[in-house]
Design goal:
Blueprint (H helix, E strand, L loop, with lengths): L1 H12 L3 H18 L13 H13 L7 E4 L4 E4 L5 E4 L4 E4 L2 H4 L2 H4 L46 H18 E5 L1 H4 L9 E2 L3 E2 L8 E3 L7 E3 L5 E5 L4
Helix pairs in contact: 1-3
Length: about 230
Amino acid sequence: TTGLTLTWLIFELAQNMGIQRRLQQEIDDFFKELNGRDMTYDDIPKLKYMTKCIMETLRLWPVVPNGTFREFEHDDVIKGANGENVKVTKGSICQITNYNRHRDPELWGEDVNVFNPDRDWKDHEIWANEGLKAYNPHSGRFSPFTFTPRDCIGKNFAHMEMRPILCYILGNFSFELSDAAANYDRSTYLGVNYGTMGPQDLTKEGTYKSKGGPFPERRHVGLTVKAIPRSKT
C-alpha cells in the first residue's frame, strides 16, 4: 500500500511540474538544514508541503478505495434516498467507502478531480499543518486509514517511511510520464481496484489470467515514467 501511494504521487507530480519543483525545493532546503547529518523522526515534521502532497494523493487515489466495514451497535436512523429516514437495526453491517467521499464535489469543491495540495484542508486531515503526528488523520470526508478505534495499524510506519524515500528520490531525480503513459483520458482513468488500487499500466492492453483469487482476469498494474537526474549546483 505504501508503494502504491508513492507511485500515485509520482504519477501526479509528473503531470504537475510546478508542484514537483516546489516539493523538490522543500527537500533541498531540508537537506541543507540537516547539513550532512542523518535525518531523525523529529526532523520529518518540517516537510509540511510534502505532507500536503501525500494527503492529496491519498485523497485522489486512496489505496484502499473500498474503505472499511462497521457493525451497528444499536438501532439507528439514517438519511436514505430523497432524504427519507431509513431504520437500521443493531447488528447491520455498514460499508464506509473512501473513493466516493474523497471525490465528492459537495465535500471538496468543484476542483475535486484536480491534484491540489494547497486545497482547504481541515485541521485533523493534515495534523493542523504540523507536518507529522502519531494520530490518525481523518474527518467525515477523509479517511485513507479508516476510523478509530480500529484504524490502520501501520499508518504511522507508512508515513515515516514515505518521507525519507521521497526525500532521496525527488532530491536526485525529476519525473515525467513516459509517452505511452501520458496519452490517457483523465476523465475516465480511475485506476485498477483489486482490493488495493494501483495505476493501470497504459503500455499494456487487455487482461491476463490470474492464478486463483476472486479475479480470474486482471488488468495490468504499473506506471512508466522518465527519471531525469537532477543537476547539483
